[in-house]
Amino acid sequence: MAETIENKKIEKILCPTCGTETNHEIVWKSKEVRWDDYDDDMWATTNFDVLQCLGCETPTLRKEHMFSEDINMKRVNGKLVAFPEVTLWPKTGYRMLKPKYMNNAPPNVKRVYRETVEAYNSELPTLCAAGVRATIECVCKEQGIVQDDLKDKIDALKEKRVISDDFANALHENRLLGNDALHESALFGDIELKTAIELIETLLETVYETKQKTNLLKSLRESKKESGGEVKF
Question: Which domain holds residue 200?
Fold first, then answer.
């Protein structure tokens, strides 16, 4: 419910950037679009507005739609009230994941990883599970591993000591998840998919980010020795 504060229409909704409910100002509102079918006594209305977070200033587009044959009725203070179907862009929700910054990963690896997270956020579980598998494939290819079978590629990562034995077993579980999605049309819940995404995030951090951070620490340590205790930047 919007309230007016200093001539501003303020409403609390979930902000996709802040990740929590914040006050938003309604900065734009469309004219109502209405459709009527008088012969069958049916109607529909659609309204759009833009709300801007008063914290981070991220805008959100909201669509409110009502159809006479499918009205969502709720009881408020003892009375039945019609509520519209609400859609927000960008999509928001407490289940949403934010892609992690992988600054040192190759562009194709980052792209497939981000598309995998986007598939999860868009509630496309089959594409998300396939994306988990594809991300592992991209990492193997970038590491120069050319085996045909993904199982052999993961084992090659282990043999090259890129990953540990335990982590190789975890990636095999991710591989099987992707297999089930592509070949068995299996469905997966949020917990399975989030865990699988967390594993590939750990893979990317292990392969790309950890090495760069280690090299930075080594460089700073050597620089400190050369300068007699002062770190050169």
Answer: 107-220
Reduced to 3 states, what is the DSSP secondary structure of residue 55?
Answer: coil
Residues in Cβ contact with 178 at an 8 Å cutoff, skipping those fewer than 6 apart: 129, 130, 132, 133, 134
The structural domain count of the chain equals: 2
Residues 144 and 67 in one domain: no
pLDDT along the chain (233 residues), means of 10: 70 86 93 90 93 94 91 83 87 80 92 94 88 93 88 90 88 74 69 91 91 82 73 52
Q: What pTM does this model have?
A: 0.65
Q: Helices 190-204 and 165-183 meet at what angle, rounded to 10?
A: 130
Angle at 46 between CA 43 and CA 47, to 5 degrees: 145
Q: Which single residue is written with the structure tokens 């951090």?
A: 205
- 98 within domain boundaries: no
Domain assignment present for 180: yes
